[in-house]
Amino acid sequence: MTAEPNPSDPARARFFVLQAVRAAGVAQVILGLLITQGQLAWPEAIGWVLIANGMADVFIVPMLLAKRWRTPQP
């Protein structure tokens, strides 16, 4: 039998935060691509900034958060 996970488990909350950061990054990249391709009437520079920020949110920020949340080794 497996025990039910504790609803206030910090690992569970951190997992969902990591996934939310990644999903927001993907959304930013898609929005940036739409802007740079002329599908939205926003300045192209904003599109490039969104793409760069979204890529950082997908690849860099989750690693930094995981490293910060890591339990110290004895």
Task: From the structure above, extract its key features.
single chain, 74 residues, mainly alpha, 0% strand, elongated
**Count of the separate structural domains:** 1
Coarse morphology: elongated
**DSSP strand tally:** 0
Q: What is the helical fraction, as a range of percent?
A: over 70%
The stretches of 5 or more residues where confidence is low (pLDDT under 50) are none
Main beta sheet: none
Report the β-strand fraction as a percent range: under 5%
Question: Count of helices?
Answer: 3
Gyration radius, rounded: 17 Å
Structural class based on helices, strands and sheet pairing: mainly alpha
Mean pLDDT: 91
Spatial gap, N to C terminus: 31 Å
What does this structure look like?
- The protein has 74 residues and is mostly helical.
- It is built from 3 helices and no strands.
- α1 packs antiparallel against α2 and α1 packs antiparallel against α3.
Could you give a short description of this structure?
With 74 residues, this protein is mainly alpha-helical. The protein has helices at residues 10-36, 44-59, 61-69. It contains three helices and no strands.
Write the layout of secondary structure elements.
Blueprint: H1 10-36, H2 44-59, H3 61-69
Helix pairs in contact: 1-2, 1-3
